[in-house]
Structure formats: C-alpha cells, structure tokens
Specification:
mainly alpha; 434 Repressor (Amino-terminal Domain); globular
Length: about 80
C-alpha cells in the first residue's frame, strides 16, 4: 500500500470514528448494526482494515449517513 493510500485510509478511519462518536454509538453497537464484530470496527477505526466502497457504504448506512465523494483541487 502506498503512503498516499495509507493516509487516505487513515482519514476515512478517523471520519468513521468521529461520526460514530457523534451518534453516541459504541463500536459494539455499530458492529451489531452491520452484522460484524467489535474487533472489525476497531481495526477499521485504527486504519488497519482495508475497505471496499461497498463496505464504506454499509458503514455509512449503519451510521444513518450517505456516502459522498469530493475531489478537491490541490494547492500548488
């Protein structure tokens, strides 16, 4: 995995954790909504679990959200 890919995965992981906490939801509660284990959620939030787009959609739905994508112009 490239450095840039790892940074992006860590950014996604941080956002998932932030949204979960905003919803006052534990990792266990999120896992239950998704039909997975708390340890999987922990790996996701630590950036140690590679994620497919489908799985990110599933996480978003469990958090009551919709996935949105932005391409932001780089500053030179």
């Amino acid at each position: 995995m490239s450095r840039k890919d790892k940074e992006t995965l860590e950014e996604i992981a941080h956002k998932i954790s932030e949204l979960r906490q905003l919803e006052s939801m534990t990792q266990q509660e999120l896992a239950k909504r998704m039909g997975t284990s708390q340890s999987v959620i922990s790996r996701i939030e630590s950036g140690k679990q590679n994620l497919s787009i489908d799985y990110i959609h599933k996480i978003a739905a469990a958090l009551g959200r919709k996935l949105s994508l932005s391409f932001i112009k780089k500053k030179d």
